[in-house]
Amino acid sequence: MSTFIESEERTALRAAVAALGKRHGRDHDREALWAEAAKLGYLGVNLPEEYGGGGGGMAELSIVLEELGAAGCPLLMMVVSPAICGTVIARFGTEEQRQAWLPGLADGTRTMAFGITEPDAGSNSHRITTTARRTEGGWVLSGRKVFVSGVDIADATLIVGRTEDARTGKLKPCLFIVPRDAPGFGRSQIDMELHAQEKQFELVLDDVELPESALVGEEDAGLLQLFAGLNPERIMTAAFAIGMGRYALARAVDYAKDRQVWKAPIGAHQAIAHPLAQAHIELELARLMMQKASALYDAGDDLGAGEAANMAKYAAGEACVKAVDQSVHTLGGNGLTREYGLASLVTAARVARIAPVSREMILNFVSHQSLGLPKSY
Ligand SMILES: Cc1cc2nc3c(=O)[nH]c(=O)nc-3n(C[C@H](O)[C@H](O)[C@H](O)COP(=O)(O)OP(=O)(O)OC[C@H]3O[C@@H](n4cnc5c(N)ncnc54)[C@H](O)[C@@H]3O)c2cc1C
User: Fold this and answer.
1) Which residues line ligand 1 (CB under 6 A)?
2) Domain closes at, from 185, 216, 247
3) Which residue from 240, 250, 243 is spatially nearest to 330, judged by alpha carbons?
4) N or C: which end of the chain has fewer CB within 10 A?
5) 74 and 129: one domain?
6) Which residue has the least CA distance to atom 30 on ligand 1?
């Protein structure tokens, strides 16, 4: 069947997650929702069955995050823990690492954060300087990271570094599992203007000693391994954005049907109705692209998925920002009250435009990779 017409199983998953989301809602307790979603098998739906997962793929995992978001209770750590870290460990980890992490990531008893962004590298990952030095029987990791989400609630963080002899030039990333309480692994919370339960941290890795087994995958496997995790991250950010956009839009549509200050409800005015209709169309289009990206990724086409996942993240981020903006506007003054809870989404929606890769970096990627245009940097 066409991948954009959801199978009965996926439709049922969507409905079941939507029901779970509805029970928890906007004022949810993150831990309780995380535990219940895990118990129902939703958090590990993409992980291999032999390690306690659901044996599905990104198509299923993105449905889970989208529906929780549409119910007002997105679980941001789903973008990193099962999607990036779970995928990378399942695909490139040793048998020991799989046994150690996947069952816990799948049943929600363990969580893993992901750190790539650095203060002096930002969008230019080729410039990261977190460096791994070989020692007898292990590694010593030094560097700094910034904006890393959920380090306090994660058992470990998957840190992207580079080896000492690959310190400059083209990035040959290598990935290390760093336990939360490893000596030398410091974190300080960044004061964000975000109403999210998951916090962002600046990290200092001060000669963190790690065993040999902390390295996930090959030292020299390079970008391929990293992108195996980053494509799911983009797909999940699209799901996050589409869910949030749908949540805001639904609040606005309800409001526009009821609120009446002239003869008809405000939703009868095309100046209110049309932008909401546009927002709906754009969210649906973004979801189609997300489904294409998931289908390619789940079929093992990492290259094709790369382009589609970037485009899906772009489309979803833009659609989310627009849907939230228009929804706030539809509520007039109530759009800015705490009671209606839409104003804080104005900030939250921008996350999907900036992270994990900014709108401009996706436009750069499409300019160069898809259209073959020359590079300015
Ligand atoms: C809420 C939140 C959660 C996050 N969670 C994580 C996490 O868990 N792990 C993690 O590793 N990171 C995380 N990040 C970091 C995020 O991925 C980065 O903020 C993002 O990649 C942008 O990097 P930067 O902030 O350094 O911006 P910069 O790279 O400094 O970019 C600033 C601006 O310049 C533009 N720009 C830069 N270069 C170019 C160019 N060549 N052409 C055109 N425009 C350009 C960008 O588009 C952007 O608008 C998170 C960020 C936020 C806001």
Assistant:
1) 80, 114-117, 122-123, 147-149, 194, 200, 351, 354-358, 360-361, 364, 377
2) 216
3) 250
4) C
5) no
6) 122
